[in-house]
Amino acid sequence: MPAPLPAAPAITPPPAAAAPAxxxxxxxxAPVALAALRxxxxxxxxxxxxxxxxxxxxGEPRLRxxxxxxxxxxxxxxxxxxxxxxxxxxDRVGLRVRHVEVRGRDRAARSERECFASVLDARGAxxx
Length: 128
Known about the structure:
Blueprint: H1 34-40, H2 51-58, E1 63-67, E2 70-76, E3 80-88, E4 95-104, H3 112-127
Antiparallel strand pairs: 1-2, 2-3, 3-4
């Protein structure tokens, strides 16, 4: 009998107060375009997007980690990191962004908007 696999690290969903209330959990979000994200610089606009929509808007993530019940996607620039936490909907089919975190790599006093802009700019540079 093969040895059991080590347990995956647990991920705790963000507290309810931390989750933005921009999109109902299983509501279909309005389509998001990269141009709109650049204009608004609000990473919470990504909340509610499913995995396909997210890939269409931001491309493939730099890192994709499965920590059931969540999947964490990471996008980064030279100085900032965007983490997106995707969870299955009530129907248990498909993942949607439920929580967003943006931070500077060096913990310097950079605003969330500056960091998000930096990640979007790096995404644009990768795609030409």
